[in-house]
Amino acid sequence: MREKRQKILIVEDEPILRQGLEVLGDWGKNGLILIGSVQNGREALELMATELPDIIITDIMMPVMDGIELIKRVKIQYPEVEIIVLSNYSDFQYVRQAMKAGAADYLLKVQIDFDSLLDVVNKVGEDILHRKRIQEFRIPDELESERSAFLKRLLFCTEVEDKDAEKSAESLGLIWNSRRLAVYTVEFFKDKQELRGEEKAELLNRIRECLTELEEGMVRMQENMGRIYFIAVWNKDTSKILCEFLKKRIVPGNGISFRMAAGIMVNSFSQIPRSRTSSERGLSYCFYLGENTCFDCSQRHMDKIIWSLDGEKLRYACIVKDVNVIMEIADDLLKTAVSDDFMDPYDLLKSAEGILHILMVNVRKNEDNSSERMKQMQYFRQLEECSYYDSFYKVFRQLLIELTSAGEQDLIKSRNPLFLDVFEYVNSHIEEDMTLKSLAEEFHVNYSYLSQMFKNYTGTNFSSYLNQQRIQRAVELLKEGRYSVADVGDMVGYHEVSYFCKVFRKYTGKTPSDIQKI
C-alpha cells in the first residue's frame, strides 16, 4: 500500500494517444494523481515549474523538445523525478539513448493497456518510495541531501561541466585524493533474489557506518534503483579493497551475497557516467567469477570473444550418434567462454541453448511436438536459472548426458576437460619454472578463472598444489638414494637448496636428509 499518492505527468504529442492515456484507466483508484498531460518537453518543464510530478510518462519523438532532451534536462534540474519512455519498435535506438540519459524504464506503444502501464508505474513508484525511506532514515540534514543529489548528477547526467562539478564537490566537502576515478557498481542478493525492503535499508546503514574505516578521501557512495554505486579513487588495489571490505564487514553471517563490477578509469567528473555504464555492464561478467567477487572492466575486455556454432557438423553428429563430436562442440564452447577474456554470458547462454535445440530436434525425433517444446523450455529455464558459470557448466553437461543418453565415461562428467588438460600438464612439468600466469598463457585461459578452477577441483590454490606435487616427487627421488639433496631439488623445480629444504620441511615436517636416512 502506498505511503502517499504519487503524481503522474503525461507528455505525448499525438492528441488521440495523449487523451487515450488520460482515460486509459482509473488513476485515482490506484493511488495515483494525474497532474496533467502536455504535448512536448518544453510544456512539461513549464508545468513542472509550478507542480512537480513523481513520474513522467513521455513519448520520444516530439516537436519543439523531444523526449531525449526532456530526460536530460529533468535529470539535471529534478534528479529525483523518474521517467518512463513510450516507444515504437522503430524507435529502439532512441530508447537506448533515453535509458542512457536516465530514463527508469520503457514500454512499447503497441503493448499499452492500463494493467501493463500500471505495472511499470508501480515498479518505478516502489523504487522512489524505497529510496525516500532510505533517505529519511539515513540522511537527516540538508547537507547530506545536497551531497546525495550531487553524486547522482555525477553518475547519471551526461552534461556535467568539470569546473562547476569541482566547485560543487569542494563546497559540499566531497574531496577525492585523486582525479583518477572509477565507478564500482554493487548488487546484493539473498536466496538468489535481489535484496529489498528493510534488509536493504539496514545494509545501507551498515555500509555508511563502516565506510569511515576506509582511507579518507578514497570513496563516496550513492544508492539508486536498488544498486549501490561507489565513486572511488582508482588504482590496481581498489577493487580488492572494496571487495574485502564488503566480504568482511558487510555480508558475513547474514546469508547475503553480492556481485560488484569496477568501471573503466576516468580522469574527470564529466566522464563518470562512462565509468558507471561500463561497471553496470560488467556486473553480468561476475557470472564467471562467482559470488562476492569483483569484475574489473579496466583490466578485462567485454564483447571480444565470439563463438559460432557449426550447426551442420552438430546435426550430422546427431544423425550418426557420434557422442564424441557432440561433446567436442560443447566443450569448445565452454573453453572459449573462459579463454583469455570472457564471453558475454548472454552469448554463452544462447549458444548453449542453440546446441540443446539442435539435439532436441535431431536426437528426440519420436517425441510429439508439444512434449518436445515443453521439454526444451524446461532445459532452457534450468540454464537461465544458473547464477554462475560453475553451476551452468554442471547443468549444461547434465542436460547433454540426458539428451544423448551417454554414459559418464564418455562425457567425463565429473571433471572439467580443460582442468584435466591443465592437471596433466602441471604433473608432467613440475621441474619447470611455472606460475599461474604462465599456465594461463599456455592454455589461453583467463587467469582469474584458472585460479578459481584450481581451488574448486583440488581444494587448494595453484601455488600450494604445485609445491605438494613437487615435494611428493622429491620424497620418491630421495628414497631411491641415488641423488644428492641439491640434485633432487633441481629435478623438482627448486634451484636454491636452502629454499628447497625450507619448503620440504613445511610440507613433510622433516628435512630431505631425514628422508635419505630412512
Residue share in β-strands: 5-15%
Oligomer: single chain
Mean pLDDT over all positions: 83
Poorly predicted runs are 406-415
Sheet/helix structural class = alpha/beta
Judging from the principal axes of the Cα atoms, what is the shape?
A: globular
Query: What's the N-to-C terminus distance?
Result: 79 Å
The largest pleated sheet is described as: 6 strands, mixed
User: What's the Cα radius of gyration?
Assistant: 29 Å
Q: How many DSSP-defined strands?
A: 11
Q: Give the helix tally.
A: 23
> Roughly how much helix do the residues carry, as a percent range?
40-55%
Explain what you see.
- The chain is globular, with a radius of gyration of 29 Å.
- Strand 6 (181-190) and strand 7 (193-194) form a beta hairpin.
- Helix 5 (114-138) runs parallel beside helix 8 (197-210), helix 11 packs antiparallel against helix 12 and helix 13 (345-363) runs parallel beside helix 15 (389-404).
- Strands 6, 7, 8, 9, 10 and 11 form a six-stranded mixed β-sheet that branches. The protein has a five-stranded parallel β-sheet with strand order 2-1-3-4-5, with helices on both faces.
- The protein has helices at 15-22, 41-48, 67-77, 92-101, 114-138, 142-156, 162-171, 197-210, 238-250, 272-282, 311-319, 323-337, 345-363, 369-384, 389-404, 408-411, 417-428, 436-443, 447-458, 462-480, 485-491, 497-508, 512-517; strands spanning 6-11, 32-38, 55-59, 82-87, 105-108, 181-190, 193-194, 219-224, 227-233, 256-262, 293-296.
- 54% of the residues lie in helices and 12% in strands.
- It has 23 helices and eleven strands.
- The termini are far apart.
- Residues 406-415 have low confidence and may be disordered.
- By secondary structure, it is an alpha/beta fold.
